[in-house]
Amino acid sequence: MAREMINDMDIENVVGGSIVFSTDHTTCGLNCNNQCKVNDFDGALQFIKDNYNTMSERDIMRNLVAQGYITRL
Fold first, then answer.
1. What tens digit of pLDDT does each residue of 14-53 get?
2. Domain count, the chain
3. Given this model, what pLDDT does residue 18 score?
4. Is residue 60 part of a domain?
5. Domain ranges, residue 29
6. What pLDDT shows up at residue 38?
7. How far is it, in rounded angstroms, from Cα 20 to Cα 26?
8. Would you say 73 and 27 are in contact if contact means Cβ atoms under 8 Å apart?
9. Domain assignment of residue 47, yes or no
10. Is 3 part of any domain?
11. Distance CA 61, CA 55 (A)
12. Beta strands of 1-66 (E only): which ranges?
């Protein structure tokens, strides 16, 4: 993906994620702190896709743990 300049009007539309998975998808964490073991990568990814508009990333992580997709280390 090429870099491009963003004008000041569009800066509020830029979004990113803080839930980061390791390259081998065995651990994940918030803000690159790999603090959870991934039990079901595909299930976790689907849960994130289904809920990113309605939950904060912290709430998503809590729910991923509660539903068994990931386990805290």
1. 556 788 888 899 999 888 777 899 999 999 999 999 998 8
2. 1
3. 84
4. yes
5. 18-72
6. 96
7. 11
8. yes
9. yes
10. no
11. 10
12. 19-21, 27-30, 33-38
What is Dmax (Cα atoms) for the chain?
42
Find the helix packing angle between 57-66 and 41-51, rounded to 10°.
140
Burial class (CB in 10 A: 0-12, 13-18, 19+), 44: buried
| CA–centroid distance for 58 within its chain | 9
| 47, 57 contact by CB (below 8 A) | no
3 pLDDT band (50/70/90 cuts)? low
Cα 61 to Cα 59: distance, rounded to the nearest angstrom? 5
Tokens at 44, concatenated: 């976790």
The whole-angstrom separation of Cα 63 and Cα 20 is 16
User: For residue 27, what are the β-bridge partners?
Assistant: 37
Task: Tell me, yes or no, whether 41 lies in a domain.
Answer: yes
Instruction: Report H helices in the chain.
Output: 41-51, 57-66
